[in-house]
Request: fold
Amino acid sequence: MLHRIDQQQIIPTPLDEVWVYFATPHNLNEMTPPDMKFETLHGGDEKMFQGQLIEYRVQFMPLIKSRWLTEIAHVEKKAYFVDEQRIGPYRFWYHEHRFEAVEAGTQITDQITYELPFGILGDIIHAIWVKHKLNRIFEFRKKKVAELFSS
Reply:
């Protein structure tokens, strides 16, 4: 079953500055909860571009690390980009990041569509653990972005 997370926030920072930060793959490390021990392994040294492959290692549970290979599938400078999982813990992962200049600064919109493997078992694991874990990750990210770009 497909699941979705939608999140928006407005930060008091011009779009150009926000885009530069988000278009730098290594900055994802800073926006990920420390307990996930997130590491960029390959492909994150350049500014983001369409077709870019970035390999990470992330700890989802104590002592359980997973390789995660994403492709930057679509990019429109200062408007949006999409990362799609190629190898990793999800059966399907599609994350669209949108940026829009607004009167108060920049609106950031995240839409994540994902599916776990293992059919009905995956749906049960989602209900009791993954859904909450992902919500916690994206709430951490929202707070971190607000801290980084507070005026």
Summary: The chain is about 25% helix and 45% strand. The beta strands are 3-11, 39-42, 53-61, 64-76, 80-87, 92-102, 105-115. The mean pLDDT is 95. The first strand starts at residue 3 and ends at 11.
